[in-house]
Design a protein that fits this description.
Layout lengths: L5 H11 L8 E2 L3 H4 L4 E4 H7 L7 H8 L9 E7 L2 E6 L1 H9 L15 E5 L11 H19 L3 E5 L5 H9 L13 H13 L4 E2 L14 E6 H8 L10 E5 H16 L20 E8 L3 H14 L3 H4 L1 E6 L2 E4 L7 H20 L8 H18 L7 E4 L4 H4 L5 H23 L20 H11 L2 H8 L17 H19 L11 H23 L10
Parallel strand pairs: 5-6, 5-10, 10-11, 12-13
Antiparallel strand pairs: 1-2, 2-4, 3-4, 7-8, 8-9
Helix pairs in contact: 8-10, 13-14, 14-16, 16-19, 16-20, 17-19, 17-20
Length: 546
């Protein structure tokens, strides 16, 4: 029967009505979930059935629904709102809690590679908060893709020691060395391609010629290339690009990453520096809006010098601006990190007193700081502006939408299971029986179904959707749901916190209460594992205490 899935159940529901189009919706609000799990709205039914009335055969087909990944239906009935379905909840608990809560296993399809390119790391001066956004986004996206079985190569390699230290503090896992094929060899090949390109002109000096900087190799007419190739989505102000050694080195790093998609750590220059690797490798430039123009220049230069399939597969994922309110002076990314860390320390001391000043709390405060910054940067859609109020620490240290709140609730689960394990060792409670022996009919509390139906059920699909990199509908820009995991964790934390504050999980040690306690512990263990899997995509370790 397999692990139930939202998508599989919706497909089966639509099929039972004889329709492939989407008719049904999954409910998520606590009020509606009291009496229905799926709804075919009256308006949608009216569009496909005369008078909006479903024939008896349709409702019977829904009621007898089954198949791999499909939730079993308890009942189906007509209501003023439309056709409503309730699933067999104890069976849903049994089927879901017997499966791991992590991402769905990768399919056996052809291996895919994605090159994630973050030009912010080439910024010559110390990084600023606006550079952190694409870096954190690329790091998170890399984790999501790897969880789906996609191989990821991160470009460019770290070079500056200051940046290395900051990225380590932020738990950004970025390579410090490109390794493999020597970059100078690729640069030579790029120069050779430049010398034969019809879009490149030399920098000859002569009457009427304007002297160019010494580091300029030649000029490339990007506008002519765009017009002749009928390319769309590029800035209309792109015209002539002055090609420098630095720009060619940037392209060489990208070319090297593409080569590593086909050859693991190549140690020698192949016969051609420009193999055609087709559609198995995609290049995604994760760029701030301030750097978008420069990246489009490099995109076109690469297309001109290497007119193969992979350069035509370049995608641009643009991050909106990061606005810092009332800065006394331009603030660096390292200053931003230290400021948030001081705020997190002060908030911890205020809440926990001298305990938070203990050395053992250093790691806790560091992790809370990283969580605060990651949620501050990633819980907003990547196209939208982010505003950082450096004087207001509440967004980072308080409230239900902060990373600290998510980490706190994850720690509450660790404390719960630590307390239970200690009680088992002391003989107060028996060990948790196997999942197949538990009585899930004991799980009747509203919050328990909410945790299963809104979080455990769709979680693998949430991770899969967050890792999707759709092709541009027009032009070169793409939109990704990079805020999905943060928003999922925030809402999960709110619903878990509400349930945990209302329900006493570890009750009195009376045998007649054990069935319900065991079922609740099994549910919350799955929730804990889900927290850990989601936090791993943000490079955040779970905390055992706060």
């Amino acid at each position: 029967e397999g692990r139930p899935e939202v998508a599989a159940t919706l497909r089966a529901l639509n099929g039972a009505l004889g329709r492939s189009a989407a008719v049904w919706i999954k409910e998520s609000g606590a009020r509606n979930l009291r009496h229905r799990d799926f709804l075919a709205p009256r308006a949608a039914l009216g569009a496909i059935f005369p008078d909006g009335q479903v024939c008896g055969g349709g409702t019977a087909g829904v009621a007898s629904l089954g198949g791999p990944g499909v939730l079993a239906v308890r009942g189906c009935q007509e209501t003023p709102a439309g056709l409503v379905v309730q699933v067999r909840r104890p069976e849903a608990f049994r089927r879901l809690l017997g499966f791991p809560s992590g991402p769905a296993p990768a399919s056996g399809a052809q291996q895919r590679w994605v090159v994630l390119h973050c030009p912010a790391l080439r910024y010559p001066a110390p990084l600023r908060p606006r550079h952190l956004r694409p870096l954190l986004l690329a790091d998170h996206l890399a984790q999501l893709l790897r969880a789906q079985g996609v191989s990821v190569c991160l470009v460019p390699a770290l070079a500056k020691e200051g940046s290395q230290k900051l990225l380590q503090q932020l738990r950004i896992d970025w390579p410090a060395s490109s390794g493999g094929l020597a970059l100078p060899d690729i640069v030579v090949a790029l120069k050779q391609a430049l010398g034969t390109s019809p879009y490149a002109t030399g920098c000859e000096e002569g009457p009427g010629k304007v002297a160019l900087p010494e580091d300029v190799i030649c000029k490339v007419h990007l506008k002519n290339f765009v017009e002749q190739q009928c390319l769309v989505g590029y800035d209309p102000n792109l015209d002539v690009l002055l090609v420098t050694e630095e720009k060619l080195r940037s392209l060489a790093e990208l070319q090297q990453a593409v080569l590593q998609c086909t050859v693991s750590y190549p140690m020698a220059l192949p016969a051609s520096c420009f193999p055609d690797i087709g559609s198995c490798c995609s290049i995604v430039h994760v760029v701030s809006c301030e750097e978008e123009f420069q990246q489009q220049q490099l995109d076109l230069l690469w297309r001109i010098l290497d007119p193969r399939a992979h350069t035509a597969l370049q995608k641009h994922l643009i991050c909106g601006p990061v606005k810092v309110t009332n800065p006394s002076s331009p603030i660096g990314a390292d200053q931003y990190f230290q400021l948030r860390r001081h705020q997190m320390y002060d908030a911890s001391v205020m809440k926990y007193g001298e305990l938070a000043q203990d050395e053992a709390w250093t790691e806790v405060i560091d992790t809370l700081t990283v969580a605060a910054i990651r949620f501050e940067m990633l819980s907003t859609a990547h196209r939208s502006q982010i505003t950082l109020d450096l004087e207001d620490s509440s967004i980072s240290t308080k409230g239900t939408k902060s990373g600290a709140f998510v980490m706190y609730n994850c720690a509450r689960l660790a404390t719960l299971f630590g307390t239970y394990q200690q009680a088992v060792e002391q003989g107060t409670y028996p060990p948790l029986p196997p999942a197949s022996e538990l009585k899930y009919s004991c799980l009747r509390e509203e919050g328990e179904w909410l945790l299963l139906f809104n979080y455990l059920l769709p979680f693998p699909e949430v991770l899969q959707q967050a890792a999707e990199l759709p092709a541009p509908t027009k032009g070169i820009r793409i939109t990704a749901s990079t805020e999905t995991v943060c928003k999922f964790l925030i809402q999960l934390s709110m619903d878990f916190s509400s349930y945990y504050n209302r329900v006493h999980v570890l009750g009195e040690p009376f045998p007649h209460l054990f069935d319900q306690m065991f079922a609740r512990l099994q549910l919350l263990e799955a929730v804990k594992d889900m927290f850990h899997s989601a936090l791993a995509t943000l490079h955040l370790p779970p905390l055992s205490q706060i």
